[in-house]
Amino acid sequence: MSDRITALIDRIQALEDELETEFEQKHAALNLRIEHGRAVFDKEVERQQAALRTGLLKYVTGSRPLIVLTSPVIYGVVIPFVLLDLCVTLYQLICFPVYGIAKVRRKDHIVFDRHHLHYLNWLEKLNCAYCSYGNGLLSYACEIASRTEQYWCPIKHARRIANTHRHYRQFAEYGDAEGYRNLVDALDKRLKNLR
Questions:
Q1: Is residue 153 over pLDDT 80?
Q2: 46 is a domain residue
């Protein structure tokens, strides 16, 4: 990888760190803190949030009929989600030790914490839990797939792709045979040390 590309990657990382600091400042402004891994608000903030909760009846009757009618389709996807969850979890449990790849921690991707928000009614909390599971699961599966790709084929595509995973920037350039051969061992070592 060229020095210029490495410098750009470092700048991107610095910007991501700066963005995370901004998010932390927003949390502080909302009187949000993390205690024992759980988000906690002051009691007064919780009371203010609860006052903004939309009642269940008003929430449901205020929804467009087509939204209500499509909800079984949305929630029906839970079946393939659970199957995907089972498959990728078994895959990494069986294969990653053989390849020497560090396992992906499921809890780093699938997070359920929105049900603690006092301004959500129980149906909104259910919707949030479903979205947390679906998006977290896809992130978990993507990380497992990306580590597999880094192990077996760490080569960038010739065309630009819409979304790349966090390991992709380290891959060898398309068509750079010498770079690929030099990179494989280094990337294998990184996979063993991932958290």
A1: yes
A2: no
